[in-house]
């Protein structure tokens, strides 16, 4: 007990200075708290906006898929027009992000640094938007949207960038585009359009061969996406070989239809022709094997 | 099995069909849903390859544009990557000095208390040598793009903060404020305005210093220094109380903060052991 008693005064003596240090620290950390709180709130707002951008971009892509393969030029034009207005709707959300960042430090240097500081919160939405925009552009121009065009689209009326699009964002976006084009090509195929898959295939091949040249350490995320692109390409190629066959089938259908009309009342003749054709094929197969 | 026999199987599965042999192809046309099966196919006919050539010409000019667009973007990407590489390289000599300072501070655990001041002063001196090196880093970073490259600079800044806070705790028994830390690093000069010690990095760096203290507390007891553990315990207590004020998210800082609890407990345990044995009495 005696020990504890002698300890008490020394503890009390040192705690007076401790108290002042503690008080000082507490007030410092209170300002850190308000700084972190402000940052967290801003982060939340940016994430919410970025998510809305993702959602709307997905809707834009679905909208394009639904109607872009329409065979009627009027419908197709209407679809692209609506696509553009959807794109402008997303644009206003990027404007919102710019306004949010501009409010930091009353638009000084801090605001200009803001984009890079909050880039991670914004980039998921941006990626999806670039995918949608490039798909829309492809349908409008049958070509690849240049990076400068993406940046121009994402600028305000004075040409000031709303957000900065880096080569990295762009390349990753284009890698995503190939997946959408694969779906587009498949849809086009089902409407009997054989040229579109052919064009898409050529396009995706060009994009892929360029991206294959980028070393993986340079853009790690791309190497994963490239695998997806390769799969997409294979799907289009498989679809395309089908397309060529069905294009041939289209020509054949003409002859076919004629004979169907010709022998409509004589099914036994048609059956005979079918049998002969089968035997022919089998014979040719066998001969081919013997050679 | 020949494709002919395979076709026969397909035919059996279709209730009603028509079949045609034409231009090297065998077509089976189902009557029910007018779907077409193509069961045999020779090389494409000449007329077909002619239309292909025309399409190919048109496509190759398009491919040309795509090639140009992509080549220029890839060049931009390479520039970006080169800059990142340069920045990483410019950080390396700073990292070397930072490690030297950490090595110096490691001596605290084994050296007698009388040498502690000297060791800490040495560490601070080593760290001040990074000041001119930060100028080189600052020169590389484009205006307003600090946060684009922060991921490369942050770890170094956090480690240096840890060393500064630890050394200056031994020297002054106080927490070094962020501004002082930044000044010691030479980040407050005109030539380094682009560089910032962010609150996040500072707050993480401070916890790094606290993580070092339980060990120091135990080693102080081993070397018969019974005052240091009490000093440490009270400091860690204050730091913990301060961090408790913050509303943390589930991020790296939060995880670091969680480690503080254990540090505090270990430091308090040492004081408890000393008190129990009556070793905390002031000496006459």
What's this entry about, in short?
Chain A is an all-alpha fold. Chain A contains 9 helices and no strands. Chain A has helices at residues 2-67, 73-102, 109-117, 119-141, 147-153, 167-190, 195-212, 220-262, 267-290.
Descriptive overview:
The complex is a heterodimer of chains A (about 290) and B (about 280). Chain A is mainly α and about 290 residues long. Chain A contains 9 helices and no strands. Residues about 1-15 of chain A have low confidence and may be disordered. With about 280 residues, chain B is mostly helical. Chain B has helices at about 5-15, 45-105, 115-130, 130-140, 150-170, 180-185, 200-220, 230-245, 250-275; strands at about 15-20, 25-30, 35-40. Chain B has a 3-stranded antiparallel β-sheet, with helices on one face. In chain B, a hairpin with a 2-residue loop joins strand 1 and strand 2 (about 25-30). In chain B, helix 3 (about 115-130) runs antiparallel to helix 5 (about 150-170). Chains A and B meet through helix 1, helix 3, helix 6, helix 7 and helix 8 of A and helix 1, strand 1, strand 2, strand 3 and helix 2 of B.
DSSP, total strands of chain A = 0
Q: What level of helicity do the residues of chain A show?
A: over 70%
Strand content of chain A: under 5%
N-to-C span of chain A:
110 Å
Number of individual domains of chain B: 2
H/E element order of chain B: HEEEHHHHHHHH
Q: What is CATH's topology name of the largest domain in chain A?
A: Methane Monooxygenase Hydroxylase, Chain G, domain 1
Shape of chain B: elongated
Major beta sheet of chain A, specifics?
A: none
Shape of chain A: elongated
CATH domain class name of the largest domain in chain A: Mainly Alpha
Domain count of chain A: 2
GO cellular component, one term (chain A): nucleus
Subcellular location (chain A): Cytoplasm; Nucleus
Biased composition (Polar residues) (chain A): 12-22
Protein name (chain A): Translin
């Amino acid at each position: 007990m005696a020990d504890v008693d002698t300890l008490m005064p020394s503890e009390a003596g040192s705690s007076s200075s401790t108290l002042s240090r503690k008080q000082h620290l507490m007030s410092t950390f209170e300002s850190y708290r308000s700084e972190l709180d402000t940052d967290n709130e801003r982060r939340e707002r940016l994430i919410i906006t970025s998510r809305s951008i993702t959602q709307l971009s997905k809707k834009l892509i679905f909208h394009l898929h639904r109607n872009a393969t329409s065979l009627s030029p009027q419908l197709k034009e209407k679809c692209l027009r609506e696509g553009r207005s959807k794109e402008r709707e997303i644009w206003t959300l990027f404007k919102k992000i710019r306004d949010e960042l501009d409010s930091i430090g009353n638009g000084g240097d801090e605001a200009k640094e803001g984009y890079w500081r909050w880039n991670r919160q914004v980039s998921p939405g941006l990626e999806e938007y670039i995918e949608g925009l490039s798909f829309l552009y492809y349908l409008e121009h049958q070509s690849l949207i240049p990076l400068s065009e993406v940046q121009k689209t994402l600028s305000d009326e004075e040409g000031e960038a709303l957000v900065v699009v880096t080569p990295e964002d762009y390349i990753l976006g284009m890698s995503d585009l190939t997946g959408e084009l694969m779906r587009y090509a498949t849809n086009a195929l089902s409407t009997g359009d054989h040229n579109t898959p052919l064009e898409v295939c050529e396009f995706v091949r060009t994009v892929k061969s360029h991206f294959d040249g980028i070393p993986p350490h340079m853009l790690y995320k791309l190497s994963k996406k490239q695998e997806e692109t390769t799969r997409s390409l294979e799907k289009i190629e498989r679809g395309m070989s089908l397309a060529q066959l069905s294009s041939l089938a289209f020509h054949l259908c003409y002859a076919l239809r004629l004979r169907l009309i010709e022998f409509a009342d004589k099914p036994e003749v048609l059956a005979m022709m079918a049998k002969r054709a089968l035997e022919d094929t089998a014979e040719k197969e066998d001969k081919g094997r013997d050679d | 099995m020949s494709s002919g026999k395979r076709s026969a199987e397909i035919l059996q599965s279709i209730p009603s069909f028509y079949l045609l042999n034409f231009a090297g192809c065998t077509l089976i046309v189902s009557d029910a849903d007018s779907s077409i099966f193509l069961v045999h196919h020779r090389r494409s006919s000449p007329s077909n390859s002619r239309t292909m050539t025309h399409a190919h010409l048109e496509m190759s000019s398009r491919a040309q544009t795509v090639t140009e667009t992509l080549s220029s973007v890839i060049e931009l990407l390479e520039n970006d990557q080169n800059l990142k590489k340069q920045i990483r390289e410019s950080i390396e000599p700073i990292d070397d000095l930072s490690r030297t300072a950490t090595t110096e501070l490691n001596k605290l655990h084994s050296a007698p208390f009388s040498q502690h001041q000297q060791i800490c002063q040495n560490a601070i001196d080593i760290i001040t040598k990074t000041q001119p090196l930060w100028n080189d880093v600052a020169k590389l970073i484009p205006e307003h793009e600090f946060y684009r490259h922060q991921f490369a600079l942050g770890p170094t800044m956090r480690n240096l903060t840890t060393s500064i806070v630890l050394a200056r705790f031994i020297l002054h028994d106080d927490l070094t404020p962020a501004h002082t830390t930044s000044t010691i690093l030479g980040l407050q000069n005109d030539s380094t305005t682009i560089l910032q010690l962010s609150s996040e990095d500072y707050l993480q760096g401070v916890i790094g210093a606290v993580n070092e203290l339980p060990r120091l507390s135990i080693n102080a007891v081993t070397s018969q220094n019974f005052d240091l553990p009490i000093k440490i315990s009270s400091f860690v207590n204050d730091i913990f109380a301060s961090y408790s004020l913050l509303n943390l998210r589930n991020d790296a800082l939060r995880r670091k903060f969680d480690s503080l609890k254990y540090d505090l407990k270990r430091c308090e345990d040492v004081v408890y052991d000393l008190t129990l044995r009556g070793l905390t009495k002031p000496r006459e």
